[in-house]
């Protein structure tokens, strides 16, 4: 028993994070090393993997777009229509109106209108946001309960003054807000990775239990956590490229490569376990 613990400790020292990435993506025959890693090491690997995926899929496209347009200040000054909030009144230089009749969604920004009320909501609308000179009206139609409205009046913010210039001066805070949003996105990607691994584990166990006697749920789940690595990275790259054909191909590749790696890794590990018992 002491000899086995010593071997596991030596293995953990030999298998670094770079080795984990290489093995998980390209070497199913060495998955036995990954299976023996402790929970802390596995969790740290997943933190790095999901952070990499989040950066490729979400951060790079957004930051590239912002940089291509000259930064947040330039976007606010040149791309955002002129607006101002002063003395409890909102002014917007353009009229914006969008409607999705199938989904029942309606949005309008028109500061030439003094005030919007519930009677201004178009018929058969499920959700609406309407912005006038003096208020923001949010409408939601709940089945069986009728329409509910929530109003925010700009007069409640009469001490606040804001326009394009002042908003541009707050670009640092906007970047900070984007960073906070990215953290939540990364947490979502992390949780999604764990849940998808659970799905793969259940499916693989159901399909191969009769062929692999040594395939416990814990082992299968750990293999699923690592086996998703290459597919997740490839799919993130396709989203970064933002081509629908590439995205579809990346999604298909992700599924097939994950299942293939899991099958290969579990079969080889089961074979090694059988040989060890015979020895």
Quote the average pLDDT: 89
Q: Tell me about the largest β-sheet.
A: 5 strands, mixed
**Percentage of residues in DSSP E strands:** 5-15%
| Number of E strands | 8
**Range of helix content:** 55-70%
* Order of the strands making up the biggest sheet: 3-4-5-6-7
Low-pLDDT segments, ≥5 res: none
Structural class: alpha+beta
Q: SSE order, as H and E?
A: HHHHHEEEEEEEEHHHHH
Radius of gyration: 27 Å
Distance between the termini: 17 Å
Anisotropy-based shape = elongated
How many helices does DSSP assign? 10
Task: Write the SSE topology.
Elements: H1 2-14, H2 17-26, H3 31-35, H4 39-68, H5 72-78, E1 83-86, E2 89-92, E3 96-100, E4 105-109, E5 127-131, E6 135-142, E7 146-153, E8 162-163, H6 164-169, H7 171-208, H8 217-227, H9 229-241, H10 244-278
Parallel strand pairs: 4-5
Antiparallel strand pairs: 1-2, 1-8, 3-4, 5-6, 6-7
Helix pairs in contact: 4-7, 4-9, 7-8, 8-10, 9-10
Quick structural overview:
Helices cover 60% and strands 15% of the residues. The chain is an alpha+beta fold and 279 residues long.
């Amino acid at each position: 028993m002491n000899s086995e613990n010593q071997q596991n400790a030596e293995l953990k020292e030999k298998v670094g994070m770079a080795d984990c990435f290489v093995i998980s993506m390209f070497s199913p025959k060495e998955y036995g090393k990954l299976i023996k890693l402790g929970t802390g090491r596995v969790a740290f690997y997943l933190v790095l993997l999901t952070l990499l995926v989040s950066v490729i899929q979400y951060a790079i496209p957004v930051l590239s777009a912002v940089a291509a347009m000259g930064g947040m200040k330039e976007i606010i000054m040149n791309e955002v229509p002129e607006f101002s909030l002063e003395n409890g009144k909102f002014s917007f230089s353009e009229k914006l109106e969008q409607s999705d009749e199938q989904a029942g969604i309606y949005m309008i920004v028109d500061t030439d209108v003094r005030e919007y009320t519930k009677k201004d909501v178009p018929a058969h609308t499920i959700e609406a946001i309407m912005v006038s000179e003096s208020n923001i009206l949010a409408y939601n139609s709940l089945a069986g309960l009728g329409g509910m409205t929530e109003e925010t009046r700009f007069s409640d913010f009469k001490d606040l003054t804001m326009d394009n210039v002042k908003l541009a001066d707050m670009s640092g805070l906007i970047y900070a807000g984007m960073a906070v949003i990215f953290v939540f996105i990364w947490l979502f990607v992390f949780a999604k990775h764990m849940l998808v691994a659970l799905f793969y584990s259940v499916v693989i166990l159901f399909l191969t239990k009769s062929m692999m006697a040594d395939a416990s749920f814990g082992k299968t789940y750990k293999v699923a956590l690592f086996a998703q690595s290459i597919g997740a990275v490839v799919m993130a790259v396709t989203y970064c490229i933002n081509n629908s054909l590439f995205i579809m191909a990346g999604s298909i590749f992700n599924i097939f490569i994950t299942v293939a790696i899991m099958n290969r890794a579990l079969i080889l590990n089961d074979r090694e376990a059988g040989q060890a018992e015979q020895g």
